[in-house]
Automatic annotation (TrEMBL):
PH domain span: 41-156
Pfam family, one: bPH_11
Organism: freshwater metagenome
Entry-linked InterPro entries: PH_bac
Protein name: Unannotated protein
Amino acid sequence: MSQRDIVAIFSALLFLALIALAVTAIKRRAQKQLAIGNLTPIDAISGAIVAEALGFYVSTVFAAKPLERLVSHGLLHRGKAELVVRADGIQVSRLGETSFGIATSAITNVSRASATIDRGVEQSGLLAISWTLGETEVTTNFRLDAADDTQAFFEKLSQFKGIGAGK
């Protein structure tokens, strides 16, 4: 075996060890975050439809630590999503990931944002919904499709059930 082969094998083993370390760290963090509380099942939100929008689920972060992503409950990965605003809350249907509901009583604020953890967009390009998960306040960010990202949708969402909205 040549020195070149030894370096290649060592590099491959080091790479695999780093991947294993990263996966273990994420699993450990997800396990620790499970104590925060459980997501509301999507079918628990079933009131009359107020508004709908298509777009992308970007992230859920801790309100007190906006650079720390919530990884438990399947909230780690971004992807396509549909938001259905109903009289009793918001249904977040995610393609290939965990769908969930946000009850009206849990929502604390609806605002626009330009950035979240690892994602920056144009000014006010993200819809940020702040809500409580258990006793912890979190913020979930969405990037809505241009056709659905209207001021009318934002106003319906932010005034729905008297939620205070920030811009």
